[in-house]
Design brief:
165 residues, alpha+beta, Aminopeptidase, 38% helix, 23% strand
């Protein structure tokens, strides 16, 4: 299929995710190492689809979902512009390096600009060297010092503690 313009390709291939995309999204997340998401995906998908500060989009090729991108828009208290955060971004391994990631990231950039964001951030695990190269090509810079407090581990530790009556 020939496309007359970049805009036409974006409009033809990128769309908002819907409940019919669950299996494809589960498979794409599995390629990132997130297994077992089918247990809770329906509820998460509905929450994200209905959230005003979230865009969950998929990329279709030949009527098959081959990529997913989740973007959150977060208000900043001390700065005029908000920021966008890519929380999940997966392109099927069979179609990588064909420009799909570029189109989705460009779409994300346009959404962020439309929402008056002053930056896009992404957390990308150090083991994902290919993804790092992609983000650097798209103009991202590494910003050191990212701190995380894991509540899941703390919650499990508390559940393992004896109950006091």
């Amino acid at each position: 299929m020939q496309f007359d313009s970049f805009e036409q390709k974006i409009k033809m291939a990128i769309r908002k995710a819907n409940s019919g995309d669950i299996n494809a999204i589960v498979a794409l997340l599995s390629q990132l190492g997130y297994t077992g998401t089918e247990k809770f995906m329906e509820g998460k998908l509905q929450r994200l689809i209905n959230h005003s500060d979230e865009e969950l989009v998929v990329y279709e090729e030949n009527n098959q979902v081959v990529a997913v991108l989740s973007i959150h828009f977060i208000p900043q208290l001390a700065l005029e512009g908000d920021f966008a955060r890519i929380s999940y971004f997966s392109v099927d391994s069979t179609v990588r390096s064909k420009g799909i990631g570029y189109l989705l990231e460009e779409y994300c950039t346009r959404l962020a600009k439309d929402r008056k964001c002053d930056r896009i951030e992404v957390h990308c695990h150090e083991r994902r060297a290919d993804a790092h190269r992609f983000y650097y090509r798209q103009g991202y810079e590494e910003v050191p010092k990212y701190l995380v407090k894991s509540l899941l581990i703390k919650q499990q530790e508390q559940e393992d503690q004896p109950k006091i009556n």
